[in-house]
Design goal:
Radius of gyration: 29 Å
Distance between the termini: 61 Å
Structural class: alpha/beta
Strand content: 15-25%
Number of strands: 17
Bound molecules: adenosine-5'-triphosphate, magnesium ion
Helix content: 40-55%
Number of helices: 16
């Protein structure tokens, strides 16, 4: 496969002031076209560092794409870095100079306006390089050969980079490398399994496929996505490879796999299929669970409502938990979670009640460390509670608590939907 290496230029990227979003844009665009991105280099605004990175990238890949540092200011040094990498000097390009003068004249509304010397730097090009048209901004791109590899330098401004990737770089790459494999990708979502458990279940398939399809495991927010990417001579060949692996994954992962676009959408779908409704009783999440369900179009068919009982006293008031018993068992306990789930289902007249009570942090509560969360689901099969020990800061604990509750509700719905055995 044709390989591409990226060089992102900018002190702001190294200092952490700016995410390398251009790397994301380029990675996606190139992977989708059947190119293999083999590395990202990030360097500061320094001629020596830029030229070294460009030379290293050209030694490792068939194509190099540089972004940033093409502007008019002193810290925009990509032109100089490219010249050094190619071992040539910078020269004034007459067509670029004319275009700059025209642009300044148009802006000032008068001919013969002097272009500031700093801006004139944008008319410089390494000897032998070709300017690339930038229809969206002032900084032209640059195409130059380094070590016989094409090196495209693009502006750092994301809007300008996007436009040039589409209008200039991809068409040129397609023409240079007509024989590219077709890439087909499919994702399945899982919930309720650790990333390592998902990976272990698919280890034999990873071995069997030996890299095509490539199987990636992406864990975030309490869920794990399995991304299957295949390359083939044509779409049919690549699709066949993906389909086979997706089939194996579905079998290996069983009920952990769901098909909706999100976990909350899956829960809404299951509730709808069961003709059931749900209500939420929330303490530490204070409405986030209800809110996530309400995000799903069509939630009104299944979501009855919810109750937020943040203060301990409201837990006894809203859910009829005896105050002395609440004192004994604690606000953060399986008994309280269960009583909240049962209480909210009764109060709201829903088939299911889901409850969350726990410690979001940063300080412990009732001797429980942050991240201690009890979830409970009350439904036709009775009530079940579960302890979750969630990692992260306050925001993460609250978000993971919602995901955990949705996962519990999903399990209850799947269980209750199973055909009953006759006695
Ligand atoms: P300009 O003509 O604006 O100077 P440039 O090619 O010199 O263009 P930079 O000065 O490096 O580009 O960056 C311009 C803007 O684009 C900045 O706001 C910067 O934060 C943003 N930017 C630069 N590099 C990236 C990147 N890799 N990902 C996302 N944004 C970036
Ligand atoms: Mg700049």
């Amino acid at each position: 496969m044709t390989s591409v290496a990226l060089v992102a230029v900018g002190d702001e990227l190294l200092l952490g002031d700016q995410l390398n979003g251009n790397g994301v844009t380029l990675g996606r665009a190139l992977a989708g076209e059947g190119f293999s991105v083999v590395g990202h280099f990030v360097v500061g605004d320094d001629i020596g560092h830029i030229s070294r990175a460009v030379r290293d990238a050209a030694a490792r890949a068939d194509v190099v794409i540089v972004c940033g540092g093409l502007g008019p200011t002193q810290d925009d040094l990509t032109r100089e870095g490219l010249a050094e990498a190619a071992g040539v000097s910078l020269e004034r390009d007459e067509s670029l100079e004319a275009a700059l003068r025209e642009r300044f004249a148009a802006r000032a509304g008068a001919a013969g306006v002097t272009v500031p010397a700093m801006n004139m730097r944008q008319a410089n090009l390494p000897a032998g390089a070709l300017p690339l048209a930038n229809e969206v901004g002032t900084a032209p791109g640059v195409l130059i050969l380094v070590n016989t590899r094409p090196v495209y330098a693009l502006p750092g401004v994301p809007r300008e980079l996007d436009a040039m990737v589409t209008a200039v770089v991809l068409p040129d790459l397609r023409a240079r490398f007509p024989e590219r494999p077709v890439v087909v990708q499919q994702t399945i979502r899982t919930v309720g399994l650790w990333e390592s458990a998902v990976a272990e279940a698919l280890a034999p398939e990873v071995d069997r496929t030996a890299g095509n399809p490539r199987i990636a495991f992406l864990a975030s927010g309490g869920e794990t996505r399995v991304v299957v990417t295949a390359t083939g001579a044509d779409t049919a060949a690549a699709t066949a490879l993906v389909d086979t692996t997706i089939g194996v994954a579905r079998t290996a992962l069983g009920s952990a796999v769901y098909d909706a676009a999100s976990l909350e959408a899956e829960v809404v779908r299951l509730l709808g299929a069961a003709g059931a409704t749900v209500a939420c009783a929330e303490s530490l999440t204070a409405g986030l669970l209800c809110g996530r369900l309400a995000n799903v179009p069509g939630a009104s068919d299944v979501l009855r409502g919810g109750m937020v009982a943040y203060a301990t006293s409201l837990k006894s008031k809203f859910f009829g938990i005896n105050r002395l018993r609440l004192f004994d068992q604690g606000a953060v306990s399986p008994e309280t979670a269960s009583a909240m789930a049962r209480g909210v289902a009764e109060e709201c007249g829903s088939t299911y009640g889901v409850a969350l009570t726990g410690v979001a942090g940063p300080s412990p509560q009732e001797g429980n460390p942050p991240g201690t969360v009890y979830g409970a689901v009350h439904g036709p099969s009775g009530v079940a509670s579960q302890l979750f020990t969630l990692p992260g800061d306050r925001a993460q604990v609250r978000a993971l608590a919602v995901t955990s509750a949705l996962a519990m509700l999903r399990v209850a719905l799947l269980h209750d939907a199973r055909p009953r055995r006759r006695r």
